[in-house]
Amino acid sequence: MQRLLSEAFEQLGRARRIPWVDLLLVVGLAGLLFTFIDLGREWTGVHRPSIAIDLSPSALPRYTMFSLIRGLLAYVLSLGFTLVYGYWAAKDRVAGRLLLPLLDILQSIPVLGFMPGLILALVALFPHSNVGLELAAVIMIFTGQAWNMTFSLVHSLRSVPSDFREAATVYRFNWWQRLRKVELPFASIGLVWNSMMSMAGGWFFLMINESFQLGQRDFRLPGIGSYMSVAVEQGRGSAMVLAIVAMTTMIVVLDQLLWRPVVVWAQKFRVEEGGEQVLMTSWFLNWFRASRLIRALRWQARRIRRRFTRQPVAVAESAAPVPQVAERSAGRLSFLALGILLAVLAWGGVKLVHLLHQVPARVWGASIAAGFITLGRVLISTLIGTVWALPAGIAIGLSNRLSRVLQPVVQIAAAFPAPMLFPLVIAVLQWAGVSLGWGSILLMLLGTQWYILFNVIAGATAIPADLKEAARSYRLSGWHRFRTLYFPGVFPYLVTGWVTAAGGAWNASIVAEFVTFKGQALRAPGLGAEISGAAARADFPHLAAAILVMSVLVVAFNRTVWRWCYRLAEERFSLSK
Amino acid sequence: MNAQRVNPSKQAPSLDEPEILCEARHVSHDFVLPNGKPLRVLEDISVAVASNEVVALLGPSGSGKSTVLRILAGLIKPSHGDVLYRGQPLHGLNPGVAIVFQSFALFPWMTVRQNVQTVLDARAVQRSEAAERAEQAIGRVGLGGFEDAYPRELSGGMKQRVGMARALVVDPEILFMDEPFSQVDALTAESLRAEVLDIWSRKERNPSSILMVSHDIREVAFMADRIVVLGGANPARVRTVVRNELPRPRDYQSTECLALVNQLYGVITGSELPDVAPTAATRDATFIEPLPHVSPGEIVGLLEYLDARGGKGDVFRIAAQTNQEFGHLITVVKAAEMLNFVDTPKSAVILESEGRRFVQAPPEQRQKIWRAQLLKLSLFREIADVLRRRRKHSIDRDFVLETIVMRMPQEDYEKVFATFVGWGRFGELLSYDETTATITRYERRRSGEPAVE
Known about the structure:
Number of helices of chain B: 16
Number of strands of chain A: 4
Largest sheet of chain B: 6 strands, mixed
Strand content of chain B: 15-25%
CATH superfamily of the largest domain in chain B: P-loop containing nucleotide triphosphate hydrolases
CATH class of the largest domain in chain B: Alpha Beta
Oligomer: heterodimer
Shape of chain B: elongated
Helix content of chain B: 40-55%
């Protein structure tokens, strides 16, 4: 279908010399501009105690655009954060020792942990307009996006090949040239893939982020997430289906118009030689490149840039600036920033201890017990996901045709925020008489199984052809082949899938164990329910305690079980050696 | 201010009295091992590069040649000793140097032109001038027409031409080349060598001098004016400096050139394979022979080679015929000598009676001979003793590592351990389980007869 589309557009572009491409582009830009103006009006609008959400289908496109722009703003914020924090953590080894574990902890905190403080602070900062609330929503989406990207950047910056580094030093690149010409290009492929994943992760809590309640106070913003939650509250099935369709459309459009072109563009940064792998193409990028308007704009931009880049003062070449001075001041800056960060952390720690002081022992006990119940659910959901996704993923990955067709579908399924499907599933569960205690496992599975599936697919496609041929030529039976080749081959990918899926399941527990359905609140005992319940009651000490328990459990699990799995995958099952 | 800048040193009347451009004086360098202990890799190295000359650092792999080059370039600060540039102590990068890397180190996301021009941007050269100079440099290495190609579209030889253009464009006084042709096919390397000399011989233009690192004896005989032979491993030392005053252009086949090649082979084999090998009796009891990092297969291969050629060979010819890197071949010969399989008078390698017995024996018998020879080495004897005494006939990897570290503090213990396990397995002396990191006595499954007599 893609080829069809791209051919059609090419035809359009060439036929009769009417610049269709450019016309469409102008229309698209105008639409985007209009949405921005509309959103600007909404942001600066007078803050009302509660916004009425219009459930009519005609209101949905506008809501979808609002949500989309919040997601994109959050992404821009994530990218900025990643560049600064990641660069800092990778370059300053001392700071990195604090910054990386901190990132690990931040990653384990569910969005509800950030929510109350953020909202109350930002709403207090902008009491008369919606800006505070909107900013809070954007930042909450950001907390679902940023951490993965930052980890990816740190990893890439630290693994820049040493000959690149030496060449940059010998030819006296300053830090900026080094970053722009060597380090960022090297990191870009990982960053782009993680950006896609992160953007998907950001949508997960959209329903909460756009319609949250703290105790008696109702903070609601117009968007597709709040549309859905109102539809659920009122039990309007048709509106729910419409919201799901709108969300899917948005994800597909974003994939085709943003991510795919970026992925294709980033292919030029691949380091490995050998042109064996099939390169991806993007109809939109081809189309974009063919546009005369864009070409003219780029030409103009280049001309302007030429004129305004300061002509370098002709320094005697051998007397190029001594890098040591710059290094020293960078060191000082890093030291100062680290000091400030430590002070903030200490202050936050004191506040947290004060807050936790009010938590009675009984609540601690309950939270810890609930933590283990939820851990059980997380593991069961990961197990169920593995049981079906492992064979399915291998089957898809081994078939060229299947993987080409299904891989994009799976990626989109993974990007779809599962909580939007919960109401439908719960209706089925209630009809079947399954309690939420077991049902919540299914809800978690809904969001996380895709991670396992598409990692296994990626692993199966990466199994070398010679090993597959060897297995076939020795006539290994199906089960034997699975045990000796396929399972070991995909294991490293499977571990990545598990880690992502389990992380997602912890997050999902918050919405899966505490569900409002047709006006009544259902809850299953578990840590997620503790957190949601405490947030709904605005019981901050309890909330802090429950989140601390979750954070400790997640980090401890990462550090022990998953790290062990990773090591096993690397030492025993790596096919790259 | 263009690429044809005149280099004063080249027009000065005192051409016969060259000026020292850069110099290392009594430099020693330590690497820090993972266990925190320093490992001395270079000991008392003094090298100088004068104007108008080509200096080569020659030595087997692992002799620290590339480290010396990086120290002179200012990329690595030596642990001891001084580095001078035009008589002044060097702080940071050497201002007169550009490097051509063994692995090319081209940025794959930049075209040929961008790769070359970007180093001028780093020096704040005006854009129009930079473009012109890049164009010239690309032309100088014969890549005109390839300006907009990406490195992945080029062959190894063409990539290295880009690497040279990138170095030449900054107009360096000294061109550093780190094994520049070792990843280029043989024919292309041949033409690149001649072209490098062509570029260097234009006396009115930079580079004034070239410092190259190589393990190829013929290459340095062809190119260099002075050849600094490094030898030994951890630490490496300067064995000798050989002057090469053959007139240019040189001919590989000329008798003088062949004689020089032979002389260099003699220097390397003489220092790496001393004719009188110290015997066990002359050593004190705590001494353990360092194990060369060589696989049993390579030793067997060498013995088979010798056996098929009347039991005698010349390292020089063996290296050429087996397409082996000379430095590594020397290590293999050394290992075979340790096991009493060969003897090495001068640069000849002769199969000893034990070696002949080994190579003509059936596989089962071979392992037995190998095992017997291993047990003459103190490290194997000691560990085999411990294995026999232990209850379950097993020891930890750490135990062996500690023995190695204690007795051979100068060696890379991980490598020694890997060799130890490889040789021991080959002789059915021991088994090693990687997951539990334990060494056990080898047990034959079928007969149950213990492997260690």
